[in-house]
Amino acid sequence: MASDKDDRGGCRYDLEKLANSRYAAAMLLGGFVLSASVMALHLGYGPPLQPLFSGFRLPGRRRKRPIRVYMDGCFDMMHYGHCNALRQARALGDELVVGVVSDEEITENKGPPVTPIKERLIMVGAIKWVDEVIPDAPYAINEEFMYKLFNEYNIDYIIHGDDPCLLPDGTDAYALAKKAGRYKQIKRTEGVSSTDIVGRMLLCVRERSSGDHHAHSSLQRQFSHGHNPRFDDGKPPHGGTRVSHFLPTSRRIVQFSNGKGPGPDARIIYIDGAFDLFHAGHVEILRHARALGDFLLVGIHTDQTVSSTRGAHRPIMNLHERSLSVLACRYVDEVIIGAPWEVSKDMITTFNISLVVHGTIAENMDYLMEKSNPYAVPLSMGILQTIKSPLDITTSTIIKRIVANHEAYQKRNEKKEQSERKYYENKTNVSEE
To answer: CA–CA separation, 194 vs 76, rounded Å?
Structure first.
């Protein structure tokens, strides 16, 4: 006769067998359902698999919403320094939202803008690292706007460069974002600012009006080499400006490059030019050119070519500066740095160019009357097309705006000079993404 202990052991054994059998049955049934679902999905029957796993998340695999970062600015006289700042900001998140300050707030805090907000919005929207644009953003982030950024635009971090951004009363424009612990800093791009570019134009205008052609060519060469010997001590003269100390590197070119070539059957469109003081007119003609094919190749003329065709005081921006600005444009796939003036048969073959295009608004349209037309070859091949320029803006348009309001911009530069000098004197190294 079995003991009570044996009875209890037998019961426990029977219960364990039952539990194990139920577990095995459940696993078998689950496997059958999963197999059937996969088979149904494969055959095109039934709903997708996702409902089977609704509410179930593997540890550490939970999906998070994209990290959204915000950066604002005037983006007046937009240049490769602005573009590099936006590139760095985008690297700190998954989506970049950019606020463009209104004309009124720029005038109040810095002086009159060179380019109106309509053109500045076109420029910012064309930068390939920008996902969303907020027009008429405030110059200083107040509590109301910061609340709107965090709650309506789902912004995680507010980004700005390591250079100071002070309000007229001397306070930090980003103090609230820093206090909230939602501020991140990026490295300022060396050697350029809107103040510098305005200063370059003012210098060119002064030297051109003096009638000293030797000074014109001298100044142009200094810009082309990215420096001005007269200011090599790093201190601009009183009321002057810091001329570019931009040092081009292969790494910067790679950072701006798409890194992808055209496909084997791609329709490659080619357009060339100086693209000096890259502006909204350039952006719009590039947008229209890109729409004509699969890959847009842009030729950037050398400083010497620009100087010989448009005057000794040009270009304002040197070849590498102009190339980076064009590369940052979302409609551009690749650039030729230092493209030849004439489009040759060999060049068309080498780059497999399907169509050469040119706009109706340009600095130099004299080539149409010249015997040595730079587009003679593509014209003879039947692959030259003129497209209507959407905006009546050229580099000369920008320069004329400066000249027309010379005194206001001179005062604006003098106002900025002190903060520019202070930044360079106190500058420390900031790592760059």
So the answer is: 7
Average pLDDT over residues 239-246: 46
In a domain, 80, yes or no: yes
Phi, psi of 176 (to 5 degrees): -65, -40
The rounded distance, in Å, linking the Cα atoms of 86 and 68 is 13
pLDDT of 15 above 60? no
Query: What does the pLDDT look like over 316-330, one tens digit per residue?
Result: 999 999 999 999 999
Verify that 266 and 131 share a domain, yes or no: no
| Ramachandran bin of 226, using left for φ above 0, alpha for ψ from -120 to 50, beta for the remaining angles | left
Q: What's the whole-model pTM score?
A: 0.74
Q: pLDDT by residue (tens digit) across 43-80?
A: 443 333 333 333 333 344 455 889 999 999 999 989 99
Structural domain count, the chain: 2
Tokens of 257: 């490059």
Q: What is the DSSP letter of 29?
A: H
Calculated CA dihedral for residues 47, 50, 56, 61, nearest 10 degrees: 170
Is residue 412 within 8 Å of residue 112, measured between CB atoms?
A: yes
Residue 339: give the domain boundaries: 250-393
The CATH number covering residue 144 comes to 3.40.50.620
Asked whether residue 362 is assigned to any structural domain, the reply reads yes
